[in-house]
Amino acid sequence: MTAMLKLPRLTPRQEALPILPACWAVLRRDLLSSIRRRQELFNPLIFFVMVVALFPLGVSPEAEFLRDAGAGILWVAALLSTLLSLDHLFRHDFEEGVLEQLLLQPQPLYLLVLTKVLGHWLVTGLPLIIMAPLLGVMVHLDGNSIAYLCLTLLLGTPVLSFIGAIGAALTLGLRSAGILLSLLIIPLYIPVLIFGTGTVMAADEGLAIGSYLALLGALLVLALTCAPFATAAALRISVSNS
Question: Does 6 score more than 60 pLDDT?
Fold first, then answer.
């Protein structure tokens, strides 16, 4: 049995803000757990690279076509890569009994959930952003388009993680949860996909992109403020029904 979650002992100075060391304990445990499970850590990144690399072979290797479709290719690959990792967001904690401990902690559950989603983004979304410039060169995007692509991924991938966390919590403990999770989450990902690719395409055509970035930012703020509460409620329901 994997070691249970241990919250650090609080110093007198930390007792005024006990949530901070608790969140750090959750984040640290999630990051260490991801490092131990290297296969699950690298699968989304490998999938991201494979989709982008194989797309020209299956459709067209022409530079002009890839330049026009490059932003969409990278965004769809990033979306699917994030979806690939969502099934494990809460499942390991649920199977090891850690999730029940989180529910019993005196700290607000939505803040602990926010920390877990942050950890998920650090090990899935951030590597995709780091890899995006190299893959952007592969699909013949220019430097300006690659910069805007990375900016949209920086704004959009956290939204994917927050929305996915709600679906992962709702399907926790169900059979064929991966298929059900995809059916629940993919329709909610469409606005992020549209605004993300639309930003890069508008920048490539010399159009104003302020409205696209504002909408992506609004989606991020909405997900940041609402998704942790929805995920916490879904976790309570799933654990109580298990």
Answer: no
